[in-house]
Specification:
The structure is a homodimer. Chain A is α/β, with parallel strands linked by helices. Chain A is built from 18 helices and 15 strands. The relative contact order of chain A is 0.15. Chains A and B meet through helix 6, helix 8, helix 15 and helix 17 of A and helix 6, helix 8, helix 15 and helix 17 of B. Chains A, B: Pfam families: PALP.
Chain lengths: ~450, ~450
């Protein structure tokens, strides 16, 4: 069987909260001013109560609301594929499975969390959600959720992406999202920067500041984040929960679970249900794959840092390259983040997740092999996971072992085709961040003692 | 149930050949030189024997080869959706169902025929297939099939699309297709035109000439077409066959089946299995939706005409606006064809299929409503079907009738987002072709007596 389907009745009814089982919980986020643990009240200004509760909950299973399940059911359960074509191309004895999260209407796994986030905001009376977006994956997933839930979406999109990547912007607008190039004249943070430089290209940090300010200064408006936070990873666990059922049908259990890792949401989503087993004694390796140009887990430090560049968010305990680290413009825009989810960071620190960094030319080489053997053109982010799945399958071939490998195909690459063009025409280069630059960026972080 | 899934074992094992049941078969294609019925030998130069046999077969069921079934099974059966969100938005008592053909790896229904076409060519020892493409849907579906079947694909792409729509070209190249802007210097037809005008923007007619010449002058190379011909529509009937099983699960039978119609392949695919019932006495309406700017079925004449602009292909008996009719550059590029499939034309002529023409601003208005209520961004071609499904649902509301409406969502619109931008920014205009222009174009057709 090449494609393992589940029926609607197999759709998981609960998300899995790994905070119930982690050997060690991450230390709490700190208020950026007082450097004391942040209170639920601090967060209420920009988040609905239900999401704040999920953020700090240690309850193992959290019910998925019926209205969310109904929308999930329009594109979930997603299929699990056995990558027969890729196995054949590699002549490996390994069995390679991948979960296809690119079949939802926005083309990536992001809708798994945008839909519940829009839902909880709506039932708490919020009329509008403000968010930031870089390349546009998150902004489009949230705009879609807004359309389906009947809640307005305002997206601050980094100006250089707004100008150079019109497809994602148009997608958001098609779903009714209001998109502003950031820095914009809609917020004080934006206006301040525009006064200094009217042609400022924008950064994700500035866009976050604008969205947070918009949410904090409008009573009917909240803020939403597409990765990093605990509740976001919680919503993504539906990926791994479905995988477990599907692999059971196939009569397999993975030796290795692989996901690409930027903020950590798709990796957490596919792996946490398997980490539950690992914590309880089962043998399974979980590998986070990051770009060598933004090697947070492999070369960063595990310490408190701001979640954004501007230093407006709480301090989070995580692997970080320093909040003013500016990764080069690699094509997997979703993996260009200086930090990492505190949950993934803690699990990595405690040896439950391994991390590996790969260069982008090798990633695109793997993406092309995958496209030609499996037929699916992957998003460049997802292709990082493919690269390491291939490496592991070739290792299994050398060792003559019939390993079972599972990776998450977090999205399709239809809107990323220009990066394929860059690769095919030989214009893509690798970039490894110099260790000294990382050291320098880290040396500027404030020391925080709990 | 919002999404009706079939399992792999429900995948149809045979295509349905409507030539077995048509009250009247279309008159045969004629050799363009002799104007006598074309022989199988004439066709062998550019088509594999299996496809020629399918073209003229009157056998009702034709087995789908196992290797084709295996690849179909990686993305078929596709889901049938109940459009609950759209019904709610329209407050209609009608039940609206749509078949989602945009989930395959190339984003449209075209892979249903590109895969068997590549297969039959491969088993008959052909090493390479040449084809033409306008906007790129067909070229990409065939490039994908070539990658999966291990057969080389050469695509002659209309130069203006090649230059202005790089996404589809890159997609073909990612799957290993060789893409040349047409007119090219690879063929005598192309070189002749380039000598006169080195900056010629190209037409679909020229691209067809180049692909046919390439196939006819290379022994190991054949030609392939993505619509119009009988065998292409045959392969697409898997759409309607699956729909029938899925509607049975839902306990419904359609009052109306709707498909957009350019060459006719997706309309034939979704409707022929229902036309079988209609021919055998069941009541069901089938509606072909075409753009008002290219009103082949609604304003054309039923007569012999060339399939291409240049006059190189056989004469086909069909509704046509005249082979030198140049429709304006509407955004649904897949519907800009002067003629129509002979099967669809005959069925239309015999009153088994109705036709309606709609303007593109109304089409995009419907597309936006669909995107915001169902979450899926449709291809502009498919949005023509949506527009008429909405019209019929509103009519049912007026009449207070609980009609069952089925339409085919032939593809998604990720690569068509610029046309959404044109609509959202008010730049889209309607165009109705003046009757005199059509009359003039038709008056230049050669008279053919059988």
């Amino acid at each position: 069987m090449r494609r393992i389907l589940l029926s609607e009745k197999d759709l998981p009814m609960q998300w899995y909260n790994i905070q119930a089982d982690m050997p060690k919980l991450p230390p709490p986020p700190l208020n950026p001013q007082t450097k004391k643990p942040i209170s639920a009240d601090d967060l209420k200004v920009i988040f609905p109560i239900s999401l704040i509760e999920q953020e700090i909950s240690t309850q193992r299973w959290i019910n998925i609301p019926e209205e969310v399940l109904n929308i999930y059911a329009s594109f979930r359960p997603t299929p699990l594929y056995r990558a027969i074509g890729l196995e054949k191309a590699l002549q490996t004895p390994a069995k390679i499975y991948f979960k296809h999260e690119g079949l939802g209407p926005a083309g990536s796994h992001k809708t798994n969390t945008s839909i519940p986030q829009a839902y909880y905001n709506k039932i708490e009376g919020i009329k509008r959600i403000a968010t930031e977006t870089g390349a546009g994956q998150w902004g489009s997933a949230l705009s879609l959720a807004g359309a389906l839930m009947g809640i307005e979406i305002t997206v601050y999109m980094v100006r250089v992406s707004y100008d150079q990547k019109p497809y994602r912007r148009i997608m958001m607008e098609t779903w009714g999202g209001k998109v502003y190039p950031s820095p914009s004249d809609k917020t004080e943070s934006g206006r301040r920067i525009l006064r200094e430089n009217p042609d400022h290209p924008g950064t994700l940090g500035i866009a976050i500041s604008e969205a947070v300010e918009d949410a904090a200064t409008h009573k009917d408006t909240n803020y939403a984040l597409g990765s990093v936070l605990n509740h976001v990873l919680l919503h993504q666990t539906i990926i791994g929960l479905e995988c477990k059922k599907q692999l059971e049908i196939a009569g397999d259990y993975p030796d290795i679970v692989i996901g690409c890792c930027g903020g950590g949401s798709n990796l957490g989503g596919v792996s946490f249900p398997f980490l539950y087993d690992k914590i309880h004694g089962k043998e399974v390796r979980v590998i986070a794959v990051e770009p060598s140009s933004c090697p947070t887990l492999t070369k960063g430090e595990f310490r408190y840092d701001y979640g954004d560049t501007a230093g407006l968010t709480p301090f989070l305990m995580m692997y970080t390259l320093g909040h003013d680290f500016v990764p080069p413009g690699i094509h997997a825009g979703g993996l260009r983040y200086h930090g990492d989810s505190p949950l993934v960071s803690q699990l990595c620190h405690d040896g439950l997740i391994e991390a590996v960094a790969v260069g982008q030319t090798a990633v695109f080489e793997s993406a092309i092999l995958f496209a030609r053997s499996e037929g699916i053109i992957p998003a460049p982010e997802s292709a990082h996971a493919i690269k390491v799945a291939i490496d592991e399958a070739l290792k299994a071939k050398e060792e003559g072992k019939r390993k079972v490998i599972l990776f998450n195909l977090s999205g399709i690459g239809f809107l990323d085709l220009p990066s394929y063009e860059a690769y095919l025409s030989g214009k893509l280069t690798d970039f490894e961040y110099p260790d000294e630059k990382i050291k320098e960026s880290l040396s500027q972080l404030p020391e925080i003692k709990l």
